[in-house]
């Protein structure tokens, strides 16, 4: 069953097209934005205390190695 919304769309067709075009031309930035969004969603809605502790350790290790960054990612 489809529900037809009577609410007007907030984003114009031109803006949606511009966003799609940008994402197609900048796949790495799109991927980065999606990963960041997914991580925040997981932390806010699903992570257990044990997982939060593990993530905290990973973040602290990443911050400690920030000065030694050679451009590689893990």
Q: Supply the helix-strand structural class.
A: mainly alpha
Low-confidence stretches: none
**Rg from alpha-carbon coordinates:** 19 Å
Element order: H for helix, E for strand: HHH
Number of domains: 1
Counting DSSP E segments of at least 2 residues, the number of strands comes to: 0
Number of continuous helical runs = 3
Keywords:
74 residues, 65% helix, 0% strand
Topology record:
Elements: H1 13-25, H2 27-45, H3 49-64
Can you walk me through this structure?
The chain is mostly helical. The protein has one domain. The protein is 65% helix and 0% strand. The chain has three helices and no strands. The chain is flat and about 50 Å long.
Offer a quick outline of the entry.
This protein is an all-alpha fold and 74 residues long.
